[in-house]
C-alpha cells in the first residue's frame, strides 16, 4: 500500500541519519561492511561482529579429548520461554528407560529458582546438574555433552548457543 511505502521510506531515512551520526556501526558480516562503505560510511566506524561469536576465540577452547559426562545439555538464559521446564520433563521421561541419565543446565536467569525447585520436586537432583552462569567455562561442559537441547518457544531468532554447540561438534536438537 501507499502507507507502507511511505513508512519504509521514512524509516530508511531515519536509519541512515542515525548511522551517519554514530561513532561505531556493528555489521554482522564483511559483506554488510562492504555494502555500508559503498553507501558512503567510513570503514573505520564499522566493526564486524559475527552475531556475537568470535570463532578464532572459540577455537582456543576446543578440547576434543573431553570425556562425554553428560547425555544432555541445556545452555542459555534460564527463562520459562526458553523451555527449561520442558528440558526437565524430557530428562524425567528419559530416566524411565535410562535411570542413570546425566544432564547439565548452564546459565542464569529469572526462572532459575523455579527450575531448581522443579528438579527437586521431580527427584532429578542426581540426574541434572545446575551450574549457574559460567562464562567461558561453559564450553568445557558443552564439549562434555553428547547432545545439546534447545526447547525454546520464545519468539526470537536462532540462538547463539546452538551455533556454539555445533562448532564444538555437539549435535543440537
Task: Please characterize this protein's 3D structure.
The protein is α/β, with parallel strands linked by helices. It has seven helices and six strands. It has helices at 2-21, 30-38, 55-59, 84-95, 112-121, 138-143, 160-167, and strands spanning 25-27, 46-48, 70-75, 103-106, 128-132, 145-148. The strands form two sheets. It has a four-stranded parallel sheet, with helices on both faces. It has a two-stranded parallel sheet with strand order 1-2. The longest helix is centred in the N-terminal third of the chain and has 20 residues, at 2-21. The chain is elongated, with a radius of gyration of 21 Å. The model has no long low-confidence stretch (mean pLDDT 90).
Brief overview:
The chain is an alpha/beta fold and 173 residues long.
Radius of gyration computed on alpha carbons: 21 Å
Helix and strand content put the structural class at: alpha/beta
- Mean pLDDT, as a whole number? 90
How many DSSP helices? 7
Low-confidence parts: none
Strand order of the largest sheet: 5-4-3-6
What proportion of the residues is helical, as a percent range?
40-55%
Characterize the overall form: elongated
Instruction: List the secondary-structure elements in sequence, H or E.
Output: HEHEHEHEHEHEH
| Terminal Cα span | 40 Å
Biggest beta-sheet profile: 4 strands, parallel
Report strand %: 5-15%
